[in-house]
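ugh ok fine here u go
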Amino acid sequence: MTHNKNHHIEAALQILASLGLPRAQQNERSALCLLALLNLTPGKAWAKAENPLMGITPIMNWAREHYDKDYAPNTRETVRRQTMHQFVDAGLALYNPDKPDRPVNSPKAVYQIEPAALAVLHTFGTPKWHDNLTAYLAERETLAASYAKEREQNLIPIEIAPGKQISLSPGEHSELIRAIIEDFAARFAPGSVLVYAGDTGDKWGYFDAALLAELGVKVDSHGKMPDVVLHYTARNWLLLVESVTSHGPVDGKRHAELANLFAGSSAGLVYVTAFPNRTIMARYLPEIAWETEVWVADAQSHLIHFNGERFLGPYNAP
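structure:
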């Protein structure tokens, strides 16, 4: 049995090398991910390989069950970023083929072996393998490019200035960020400049570091940025906006963190929490800090002002 296990792992390593995957992905972890995506249990023939839809945790559980490889739960990120990401880029695996607009950080995210790759792998170890591999590799560039294009189409485009767009990963969080930049800013901070917009996909969706430095703010990688930062140039205010679809609003603790992070700012600070609708806002109502603003995307012409002596504006630190 052990021989079968090693045999399949060796074969998978050989395949990853033949497919031209980077050296960093030619390892046992990636070999086991490939076997899992093919449901190739020890002793099963390559011709019988399948293409189930699998998430990261099921892949790790499969490796434990069939190949006695016990990965710690915190290996999830490594598997996702150091193996699956490259499989998708190489066109070897598809990401969320069942629902391409699934949010990037969704726990339901799944991968599947790409059909042309599966067809080639069915012939591994047979006389046809070499010719099939050569034909597949000649086509693969085109395949990988068309899948990448499809993924691009699922991104959410956001206009940050006339004729200038950025794209964020799909999901309700990005939809709310789009509303903040396109609707909230246009109404309450007309002519403002986008300084920062976070992305659930790669966390730094857009960042004008030079502008922030000009305003006296030094950001280190540990300071957790708000979801959106806008510079309202007409009044020289920095609007720090938290977009709440999953994590909390600008509460007292977050207010203090942001005040600290933006302490050097020469622009006045305005704290805003944005919600998609009032139902979600109601859940967080007790936590919202005083001296902050609340904006609800489905009632975009209104601003809810949490106390203070005037409508909208920066408060001086006590």
